[in-house]
Amino acid sequence: MSISIKSVFIESVINEIEQLSLIEKMQILEYLIKEIKQSVEAIAVIPKPKYKVTDFYGIAPNLLSGKDAQEWVNQMRDEWEEREAWR
To answer: What are the structural domain ranges in the chain?
Structure first.
């Protein structure tokens, strides 16, 4: 084997693996791939999705129809206050 082995433990594991059949080696490889993949996924930083301007189409249609933004906010606050008063 051409890998430089620094750890006695790793060297003993490799010696044990070399004694295994091809199928057993493949099972170990499959296990290691699964373990490494899970470890990488656990630490991987998932970037936030980028949004296009068109993704927001229709979210606030009253703002698009010429209503002033502050007027809309005030109206929404008034509506919530009215709802709270009914309770």
So the answer is: 8-43, 53-86
